[in-house]
Structures are given as structure tokens and as C-alpha cells.
Design brief:
Length: about 425
């Protein structure tokens, strides 16, 4: 029986579409044999890739090798365009029905796919999975980097350090034909049970952020964007409940939801006596509440952990027609030259804050140096700025993401949906 090899690639999401097609065609040509059946197809949306898997299953076949060639964010392959990006969320990847054979292998030929996505894919899809730790580029040779000069002929996806990760020396090494390819990093399926919530650091987190006003920029932005009237609030990813505790005097009711049992216990204890504030555990990207139940949904420093499309459709459902969504979150992005004044000002205020709030900084240091914190971040990586910006601005045309705080390698973004009118369709498989 022939082995089935499936090669999928994108051409639209960002630049390089024509090269991705050449890479896929080169791979298909080299893998073709009398013992293999090769499917090589461009896919530009989540729906298209599901349809490929559905058709293979319907025909009674199984995939022995799966290759994806294209762009990747922290949580894996990106589809569509930057005007309307699509990405399977962790929840959707886990629920995705892929007809893998018993000894199948999945290989993701795209930037940084080995850092979080490949081990996650191996774990939830129960298949050996490989990817690159560094960024990818295009090369006319696969044994060492050779700059593509021809418009036709073989082309390879080439994983290696580059200027963005290793500076100009890496670029020079590539140009001088001295760059060897990065070996694909492979991950075996794991049956290990993993708690990727804040449970292991809940006590430290609750103590550090018992007063949410220590997040001065974030909290002040939220206050500025609250509606003038008394409102019902849903806090998604509520953590230790400090935000609702601080807002309790200015809202009619508040409900906090989180996946961490331990944090919810601290939230209930912190809000003891506030009868209008309640907390509830959720599992997965579902909000078990009636349609149009809330005036405002807030996600403070938690949206990066959520399953974006599934939770967004739920947020749209539970908000009242004139309700709105506020998101404040941390993302990764290198500081720009023009941002250095803001960076230096922030660094100075942060340094002075160590003297005015010594207890907070002592607790913060205990939190971020705890092994449980590193373990939690391993399974919950911070998203990049362009991922969140393109996602939110594409779903809410005309609304813009703001930058309210700048760090050397990260920044705080804030987004006010204004209302839920004209939100672009979010294509889902769930519920």
C-alpha cells in the first residue's frame, strides 16, 4: 500500500507566497515515487485545511507524512492575510480531526515552529512532530545556504539563525555560503498530564497583585474607557479577582471567570463581602452564560492565553447589543529608535517605584523567579505585537490598538471595541 504524503502551503498571508509554492513543488517532486502518493495543495484558510483532512478521511485513507510550508506565529501556522489573519487556536488544534496513520510524522517548515507549537501538536495529536527553533528563509541548496537568484528550479525552506536573532554576523555568514541548515527539532507524543494554568504560582501571584493599582498604566486605561453608567462586567481571565474588587463600587455587578481553581479561591477570598461580585470556573473557550448578559467584557493581561476565535465569538454572544470589549495585554516586540524616550521614561519610573512600593517589587521578584512561573510560561508563550494587532483590528474594522507602555523587548497594548457593531465574521468549528 502506498504511503500518503500531504504537503500544504500558504501563499497569501505575508510576502514570499511564490517561494512557498516553489518549495512545496520541489518537496513534492523529491518525495514522489512509485511507493508514495503525494498531495500538494495551497490552502489559505482554516476551512480549507479542514476540508483536506475531511476528504482524506472520507476516502478511507491515512496520512503517513504531513508537511506544512508557510508562515507561523507563536501558536503555529498562519493563514489568510494580514488584513484578516487566521490561526487555529490551541483548543481548535486539539479538537482538529486529522487522519494520521499509526507511525505518521508531521513537519512544520516555518519560523519558530519548534518553540511551542511542535511539542504541543505532538502532545495533543499524538503524532511525532518536527519544526525549526530559529527563523526560516529560502535557499537554492539544502545542505548549505545559497541565496536564490533564479526564478525557477529547486527551492528549499532553510532553517537557520539570521540578522533578527543573531545580528549582522549571521547575515554575513549566509551571504558567504558558510551557513549550515538548522536540524529539524523533533518531538515524540507524550501522555504526560500537564497543568498549564497559574495553579502552581497562584499564592505568589495573588500576593503580588492583591492591589491591581500596581499595574498603574493598565488600570488607569481601563478606568478611562469604562462606560459612564452602572454596568454589569464579565472579567475573562480574572486571576485573583483584584480588578473586580477595585471596580466593585462603580459597577452594578461583576462576574470573573478563570481556568485556575487556585486563583479563583484567592479571588473569592479577596472579594468576600462584595455580594455583587461572583466567580466561576470555566473549561475551554466557552462562556456558560445567556445571550446579551453583560454591558462590558474585560480581559486584563489574559487574552494572550485565550483561544482567540472561539472565545471572541462567545464574547460577542454574551455582550449586550450596545456593550463593548476592553483588552489590555502584554506582547513581544523590540523597541524602535523613536520609542527610546518613552522606554527611558518608563525605566526611570519603574526604578523609582522600587522605593515607593518595595513590598510589591519583593513579591514580584519572588513570583518571576519561582520555577512554577517558568513552567507556566513554557506552556503559555507571550504573543507578538503584530499577531494581536492584526487580529483585533481585522475583526473590528476602524478600531485601533493602542500602545500604553513600552519595554525593551515587550509592550502593553490596549484595545477598546467601542461596540460590537460591524464585527467581521469569525469562522469557527466550535461550538
Amino acid at each position: 500500500m502506498k504511503e500518503l504524503i500531504v504537503i500544504l502551503y500558504t501563499t497569501l498571508y505575508r510576502k514570499g507566497g511564490a517561494q512557498f509554492q516553489r518549495v512545496a513543488e520541489t518537496m513534492a517532486k523529491e518525495l514522489a515515487s512509485s511507493e508514495n502518493e503525494v498531495i500538494c495543495k495551497a490552502i489559505e484558510s482554516k476551512q480549507e485545511i479542514r476540508e483536506v483532512f475531511r476528504k482524506i478521511t472520507e476516502e478511507g485513507n491515512e496520512i503517513d507524512q504531513f508537511h506544512f510550508i508557510g508562515h507561523s506565529g507563536m501558536y503555529g501556522p498562519m493563514y489568510g492575510t494580514v488584513q484578516y489573519p487566521e490561526q487555529f487556536s490551541p483548543f481548535e488544534i486539539e479538537k482538529l480531526e486529522i487522519p494520521f496513520s499509526k507511525d505518521a510524522e508531521a513537519i512544520f517548515h516555518c519560523c519558530r515552529s519548534a518553540r511551542w507549537f511542535a511539542p504541543y501538536f505532538a502532545r495533543v495529536q499524538k503524532v511525532k512532530t518536527a519544526g525549526y527553533h530559529w527563523y526560516t528563509t529560502f535557499s537554492e541548496r539544502k545542505d548549505k545556504y545559497k541565496i536564490p537568484l533564479r526564478s525557477k528550479g529547486n527551492l528549499y525552506c532553510f532553517g537557520c539563525p539570521g540578522k533578527k536573532s543573531h545580528g549582522w554576523m549571521a547575515s554575513m555568514k549566509k551571504m558567504l555560503d558558510q551557513m549550515k541548515p538548522e536540524a529539524l527539532k523533533s518531538f515524540e507524543p507524550s501522555l504526560e498530564k500537564i497543568d498549564d494554568t497559574y495553579n502552581s504560582v497562584a499564592a505568589l501571584y495573588a500576593e503580588t497583585f492583591k492591589d491591581i493599582k500596581v499595574r498603574k498604566d493598565e488600570f488607569n486605561w481601563i478606568l478611562k474607557h469604562l462606560p459612564d453608567k452602572a454596568i454589569s462586567v464579565l472579567d475573562v481571565g480574572c486571576g485573583n479577582g483584584a480588578l473586580l474588587n477595585e471596580l466593585s463600587d462603580s459597577i452594578s455587578s461583576g462576574l470573573g471567570v478563570d481556568v485556575s481553581d487556585q486563583l479563583l479561591e484567592f479571588a473569592r477570598d479577596l472579594n468576600k463581602g462584595n455580594d455583587q461580585i461572583k466567580f466561576q470556573k470555566i473549561d475551554g473557550p466557552t462562556l456558560p452564560f445567556q445571550d446579551h448578559s453583560f454591558d462590558l467584557v474585560i480581559s486584563l493581561l489574559s487574552y494572550r492565553y485565550l483561544d482567540w476565535d472561539p472565545i471572541m465569538i462567545e464574547i460577542e454572544r454574551v455582550l449586550k447589543k450596545d456593550g463593548k470589549l476592553l483588552i489590555v495585554d502584554m506582547v513581544t516586540a523590540p523597541v524602535k529608535v523613536k520609542e527610546w524616550p518613552s522606554l527611558l521614561k518608563g525605566k526611570f519610573l519603574h526604578y523609582m517605584n522600587r522605593f515607593t512600593q518595595p513590598e510589591f517589587h519583593k513579591n514580584l521578584n519572588r513570583l518571576v523567579t519561582d520555577p512554577g512561573w517558568s513552567q507556566m510560561l513554557k506552556y503559555n508563550p507571550i504573543r507578538s505585537q503584530h499577531e494581536m494587532k492584526w487580529y483585533l483590528e481585522s475583526r473590528f474594522p476602524g478600531r485601533k490598538v493602542e500602545v500604553i507602555n513600552i519595554g525593551m523587548h515587550s509592550r502593553i497594548l490596549a484595545f477598546d471595541s467601542k461596540d460590537m457593531n460591524d464585527i467581521k465574521n469569525i469562522e469557527l468549528t466550535y461550538p
